[in-house]
Amino acid sequence: MTLPTDPAENLAALIRCASVTPAEGGALTALETMLKPLGFLVDRPVFSEDGTPDIENLYARRSGNGPHLMFAGHTDVVPVGDEAAWTHPPFGAEIANGEMYGRGAVDMKGGIACFIAAVARHVENNGGPKGSVSLLITGDEEGPAINGTVKLLEWAASRGEKWDASIVGEPTNPHALGDMIKIGRRGSMSGAITVNGRQGHVAYPQLADNPVRGLMSLVDALLHPVFDKGTRDFQPTNLEVTSIDVGNPATNVIAAKATATFNIRFNDTWTAETVQAEIHNRLDQAARRKKYRQGKKTPVDYDLVWRDRPSHVFLTRDDRLIETLRGSIKSAVGKEPTLSTSGGTSDARFIKDYCPVVEFGLIGKTMHMVDERVAIADLETLTQIYQRFIEDWFGQG
Ligand SMILES: [Zn+2]
């Protein structure tokens, strides 16, 4: 039997499955076909929740006597956009000038294809790692992410699964393979402020209470002063006001309500709770300021609603995991990767509650774009990095 040792072949099989969230599209079946000959036990739990589509996920484990490494990722992809604009069809896996084209090539079917090839080579050459390897693959990362990694982790943990370390195969490198390992992420929270004023005629402001004046004070307090100057491992906390809405088409009317929404990305100076407390405090103080509301006796009447659940900030401090991966990268590409906490959130924020987690995959340049593609040479190099990592990480276990 031929084992799935060629990452380009693995990736082509995955790209040919049109697994745009929430569709499974055959991608998990393709994975199962690759994993079974390697000795993995494969489960494909489906999770549901009212108001969201059912999602099929995959958990595969190859058991051994030793530590347990989990590779995490997703087979769902974002929509193709303008299909006519693609140089090669988005689900065709065509190769041109040494690059394979297709939606998911780097985000992140490519990462999965390489990891499987790395395990397959290890099985072929050394009979497989002496510990356990599992793949935790969701079909709901690019969508609402409700029936995906969170539930899959809970499902696996409730069956007694425990992991010692995890690699998420998202595309972490900005320009070249080996640029960057992600070892943490900033936290993220969004909120909406509504200021309740009193409608009236612009010529008689004393009879009205213009909510725009109040909102200006509040927004000013969100933007100034800065929250912090950054920490050793993180860039400065940043708040962006994402929208300001009054919806008032008349120029002679003072509106009754004004709203603003914002998102804050915060570093390890803060927790979700202390950020919330700080923002409440800033708004309460600003509500009493008279700068834009001379003559008003009452403070700004406002409501603040936090949207969704916060994403918590985290930093992985597992030296063995980080140093082993750093060494594998150095031996494959000859350079030192930057350890970074930049960028948006990823499923690593859920995995960190179960075991130390780092992220390392392909080059992110073309992700979510028309003509998403990956160099065949990069697939081979990433496979070698993962293979070396597996050898070294289990070797030390
Ligand atoms: Zn992704």
From TrEMBL:
SUPFAM superfamilies, A to Z: Bacterial exopeptidase dimerisation domain (SSF55031), Zn-dependent exopeptidases (SSF53187)
Family of this protein: Belongs to the peptidase M20A family. DapE subfamily.
Pathway annotation from the record: Amino-acid biosynthesis; L-lysine biosynthesis via DAP pathway; LL-2,6-diaminopimelate from (S)-tetrahydrodipicolinate (succinylase route): step 3/3
Residue ranges annotated for the Peptidase M20 dimerisation domain, each copy included: 183-289
Residues the entry annotates as binding Zn(2+) 1: H74, D107, E170
Keywords linked to the UniProt accession: Amino-acid biosynthesis, Cobalt, Diaminopimelate biosynthesis, Hydrolase, Lysine biosynthesis, Metal-binding, Zinc
Domain of life from the UniProt record: Bacteria
Cofactor: Zn(2+); Co(2+)
Residue numbers annotated as active site: D76, E141
Pfam families with a match to the protein in the record: M20_dimer, Peptidase_M20
Top-level taxonomy: Bacteria, Pseudomonadati, Pseudomonadota, Alphaproteobacteria, Hyphomicrobiales
Swiss-Prot/TrEMBL catalytic activity: N-succinyl-(2S,6S)-2,6-diaminopimelate + H2O = (2S,6S)-2,6-diaminopimelate + succinate
Protein name, UniProt field: Succinyl-diaminopimelate desuccinylase
Function text: Catalyzes the hydrolysis of N-succinyl-L,L-diaminopimelic acid (SDAP), forming succinate and LL-2,6-diaminopimelate (DAP), an intermediate involved in the bacterial biosynthesis of lysine and meso-diaminopimelic acid, an essential component of bacterial cell walls.
Root EC class: hydrolase
Keyword Zinc: yes
The protein's assembly and partners: Homodimer.
Recorded GO MF terms: succinyl-diaminopimelate desuccinylase activity
Keyword Zinc assigned: yes
Family matches, as InterPro entries: ArgE/DapE_CS, Bact_exopeptidase_dim_dom, DapE_proteobac, Peptidase_M20, Peptidase_M20_dimer, Peptidase_M20A
EC number of the protein: 3.5.1.18
Residues binding Zn(2+) 2: D107, E142, H368
CDD domains, per the entry: M20_DapE_proteobac
CC cofactor note: Binds 2 Zn(2+) or Co(2+) ions per subunit.
Originating organism: Mesorhizobium calcicola
